[in-house]
Amino acid sequence: MPTRNRFLRVVNSFGGNILQASKKQYFWFIAVLLAGTFTMSISQSSLSTAYPTLMSYFHLPAATIQWLMTGFMLVMCVMMPISPWLLKNIPFKLLFISVLAIFDLGTLIILIAPNFGLMLIGRVLEAIAVGILFPAYQSVMLTITPEAQRGSVMGIAGLVMGSALAVGPIISGIVLGFTTWRVLFVVFLVVISLVLVLSFFTVQSVMALERSRVDLLSVICSLGVIGVLYVVNQIGQSGHWQFNIGLLTMSLLALLIFVIRQFKLAQPLLELRVLKTFNYDLAVLLTAISYLSLIVVTVLFPLYYQEVLGISPLLSGLALVPGAVVLSVFNPITGRLADRFGFRRMMVIGMTLISVG
User: Fold this and answer.
1) Is the pLDDT of residue 22 over 80?
2) How far apart are CA 357 and CA 355, in angstroms?
3) CB crowding 72-84: b at 16 or more within 10 Å, else e
4) Residue ranges of domains in the chain
5) 223: nearest Cα among 261, 264, 253
6) pLDDT tens digits for 341-351?
7) Domain 23-214+269-356 is found in CATH 1.20.1250.20
8) PANTHER family from the xrefs (predicted)?
9) Disulfide-capable partner of 168 in 46, 67, 71, 338 (CB 3.0 to 4.6 Å)?
């Protein structure tokens, strides 16, 4: 009991005053939050330019190397439903610092990794941190922003996450053009370590806590997402079809239990009742399509440029610059236009441009 009380005192010390900050404190809070999120988002896509280099370094095929990104996204997807519970039960400052520390540890493991297996473990730790931070980051941004300005703020949020996905392969290409792939993770380690130090002095806990117990069965069943995405990833590859069918069946059953359980729990791990709102479902679907388009481009184009056209990693990264610039320019502008003309018009224009592209 004394140990538990000491732990609670440590946790509460990270509480801070909710939304009681000067403009200067507010600025640094947002700046540090965006810097951490932007860097982690870059790490999500940065390895796509490095695929050929890593294939040569580890003497492995692209189908194996791609798990550094596919595995990253699988773990990230599983952690995202847990993020809202963590946000409600752990002061945001403590949560943010912990996430940065986990990401730093994963990056350090990648730096010293003598083989592909250990590097993959480091990527898993990075994915855990990113999966927790991304939903929490958006919730915090919306919480501290007046409703009339939320379009602009979500434009900034989109700028941080979207442009970072596009910038990742560019930064990777530039680094690989002058040095080794490990230097890329040195950059991540230095930036996140700096953000970690600054967060002790700038980040505040801006979310009201609602203590609750995590439903372990829901957490276990959410792992079905990994099974489904793994089987989808294996489509088109020969062999192991019986195992894949079995895994897919078990994963779908686990997800079915997860969904049913969320509707029965008073405090669900993931609030699925919002899916009863058609406009919300439509927004989620269109967002998924836009992110799918972005991620496919950032993964396939560097491989195409280097493996098919035979150009250098530097040039393959620089070839993505025009798209990244346009994305970065239009994200905040679109947010302000959405505040003025409505989200529907912006969504129609955006999806039309994606379809034409």
Assistant:
1) no
2) 5
3) bbbbbbbbbbbbb
4) 23-214+269-356
5) 253
6) 777 888 888 88
7) yes
8) MAJOR FACILITATOR SUPERFAMILY MULTIDRUG TRANSPORTER MFSC
9) 46
